Amino acid sequence: MRTVKEVSKITGVSVRTLHHYDAIGLLKSTKVTEAGYRMYDDTAPGRLQRS
Length: 51
Hints:
Structural class: alpha+beta
Number of strands: 3
Radius of gyration: 10 Å
Mean pLDDT: 90
Low-confidence stretches: none
Strand order of the largest sheet: 1-3-2
Distance between the termini: 20 Å
Largest sheet: 3 strands, antiparallel
Number of helices: 3
């Protein structure tokens, strides 16, 4: 699992943009921790780049 910060660093997309994509359903996080942190599986960067 990757944090939103890690996905941001890999893809070059800002954390804020990833939060927006999650909110509108473009790239939903794989899970959200009890503390509210978004977590993505290892396929998320590839799904984002194909979108």
